[in-house]
Amino acid sequence: MAALLITLLFLNALFNVVAWPRFYGRVAKDPRAHDAVGRPTRFLIVHAVLIGIALLLAAASAVAAIVALVVGV
Asked: Fewer CB within 10 Å, N- or C-terminus of the chain?
């Protein structure tokens, strides 16, 4: 059971690290991401915050998986 949980934590971390930065690239190129002057809009800021949270969760998942491996849960 522990091996399954560790695997899921690593897969979660991997998915977040692979998927969200690519999504940010698409969001940043979206016309709604910047106003007429070129400043970031709330659309870009909100998505950047959400992606940052997803990457923090990825890091937490990876750390939890590593701790579980080392401790031998």
From this structure: N
